[in-house]
Amino acid sequence: MFIALTRAVSPTLAQCALTHLEREPIDIAVAQAQHAQYERCLAELGCTVLRAPAAPDLPDAVFIEDTAIVLDEVAIITRPGAASRQPETAAVAQTLAVYRPLHTLEPPGTLDGGDVLHLGRVLYVGVSSRSNAAGIAQLRAAVTPYGYNVIPVSFTGCLHLKSAVTRVGPETLLGNRAWVAPDVFTGMAWVDVAPAEPHAGNALLLGETVVYPQAYPQTRARLEAQGIPVKTVDVGELAKAEGGVTCCSLLFITTPGVAPSPFKRVREEMEEKR
Ligand code: CIR
After folding, report:
1. Nearest alpha carbon, ligand 1 atom 1
2. Is the pTM of this model over 0.70?
3. Does residue 203 belong to any structural domain of this protein?
4. Range of the domain at 37
5. Structurally, how many domains does the chain consist of?
6. pLDDT tens-digit map of 212-250
7. Which residues, judged by CB distance below 6 Å to any ligand atom, belong to the binding site of ligand 1?
8. What is the pairing mode between strands 102-104 and 116-119?
9. Dihedral of alpha carbons 142, 145, 146, 152, sign
10. How far apart are CA 174 and CA 229, in angstroms?
């Protein structure tokens, strides 16, 4: 069973951390509706959607990807690079402890999950304003015993490595080569984002389908031209907070035999409402 762990949009989202974008008004009700549509999309693609406990006072809590890296063997609880986001990890750790042994990053290390691109036994990690050398070294020490290789990657122009590049197929990446060099990712084919859509590199691969923002039709056409199935979602209000489609969930295979009973089963709830 595939689990998509999500977290509710906080009523304080408009006070989110911002790095590259100007602050714009955010309509919370619309953001919540878009988030619900995103969860529905993941459920339709076969995920069991579970919500970590809500954190109304933590503006960026919806961007749960940044708080952990869930591998088959272990979950790494990060230490987010924005101080305002560091309290987000406690409840996520509690939730993930049901499924994985935990390893927690410590000061002075910082690392955001949005900087970690997981391709097989390699974790490419963006060196960013959020993920520092100490955080990357701690991640390497934690995952090396499980046979993973950690490769730091330089990039520019955006918040996280995965704002610039993500996986869209078993051996295919989608990315903005103005922000990150394709040849870093050995053995992977590369689809360029459309020039008019520099932020279009963030896609969420689920099985063979790519969950993708409605806002990037030109890049979507490029994916479809490669034979990649795409399901679009409108995440426009979340994008104002510098969020994309990867950052609103943590995807992982459940441990066989472990029941997710302490958590809200969003899919079941949605089915009841139909
Ligand atoms: C932040 O600045 O941390 C949030 N406003 C946005 C985080 C988006 N996370 C992601 O793309 N992984």
Report:
1. 17
2. yes
3. no
4. 2-154+235-267
5. 1
6. 999 999 999 999 999 999 999 999 999 999 999 999 999
7. 16-17, 19, 60, 63, 65-66, 82, 85, 114, 159-160, 163, 241-244, 247
8. unpaired
9. positive
10. 14
